[in-house]
């Protein structure tokens, strides 16, 4: 900016490299629609409180709407000389409507203005992300509904543990997404507070009506302390934290899909629309989408850390450091939105579960060993004793290259006389899963109930 922008105190223009270094217009232009909306509310408040005349207010609002149209038509492209979106708008407004444009900034500072813009932006983006999460959940639920009776090995320590309903496995991600949705909902309370009218830091000498401008902008309340209002970024950090957890969840599912798509697991096949080939190895089909989601997770964590560190040493109130919040928040928003969308598409049309292969997998392991121990326990053998006995069974079966279901009744009875013919039914994978009918378990009845609960959550909007 030249000495035009600043007060007459300034005599020489900024060094061009410093102007570039200082400017945020390159990225905060993304806030323009919110800046215009915030300015309109401010102008209306100035009219209501008789700080400016109704005619002046009308001219200002009309001018701001003209800028909005220009921007939407791609005709408003302020350069670095504007420094930031707030100056760019004020300058254009004054070009359009003359000196009245210079009245807009009465009883306001860029400090409360930028805080207002950022909150309006984030409020809208959070709603958009919540909408995307709903679609992602709907997709998980649809696949789950098709696969209640499809079994998949369940793991702990990435070792086969107990078989699961595939629906149960997918619904775990549904529930994580539900917490993510709730977290976003909760933090809106703290996003939706108006700093407008806090001024530069101390409030203003004009008889403004902060409640009125807040109401026009749909804020639930106003900051009670002007210093806090202009320098609080808790809401941005909370958002980055909620975003980080969304990414944790997407990244865990990504990791599973990547494993499942490997030759070693072969639980899913990837469709061409969501995978890529290799430039050298013609046989390859790579799970780029989940890999990118997993990779981008680190960026979002980085932004959370960046924001925390940016804030920790700031004396009250506004400091230019705060300009650094924007790229962090914008990139967090864009990354999360891109990843939720990509994962939703991937699940919708990019992965197919290989049901026969899954059936074979759960049929050919020892993940029903717990059920043998449970079988003995129901026949009165203390569980720990049963557990030890079955450990021995697994050991000898492994040595003999036999699965548990391949043991003869004589072999079972040699281990413990309580074994009867019904042991075979008790350890069949469908039965093993179906029997885990405790609340929240993988038993089919439970999974049907979980599906009903999930549908109810989605039905509530
Ligand atoms: N571009 C600035 C930001 O992003 C706007 C607020 C500037 N305020 C100031 N007093 N320098 O934070």
TrEMBL record:
Biological or metabolic pathway of the protein: Amino-acid biosynthesis; L-arginine biosynthesis; L-arginine from L-ornithine and carbamoyl phosphate: step 3/3
Annotated keywords: Amino-acid biosynthesis, Arginine biosynthesis, Cytoplasm, Lyase
Enzyme class: lyase
One Gene Ontology molecular-function label: argininosuccinate lyase activity
SUPFAM superfamilies xrefs: L-aspartase-like
Residues of the Fumarate lyase N-terminal domain: 9-302
Compartments where located: Cytoplasm
Record flagged with keyword Plastid: no
Lyase is among the record's keywords: yes
Protein EC: 4.3.2.1
Residues of the Argininosuccinate lyase C-terminal domain: 366-433
Catalytic activity: 2-(N(omega)-L-arginino)succinate = fumarate + L-arginine
UniProt-listed HAMAP family: Arg_succ_lyase (MF_00006)
Family: Belongs to the lyase 1 family. Argininosuccinate lyase subfamily.
Name of this protein: Argininosuccinate lyase
Taxonomic source organism: Leptolyngbya subtilissima DQ-A4
Gene coding for it: argH
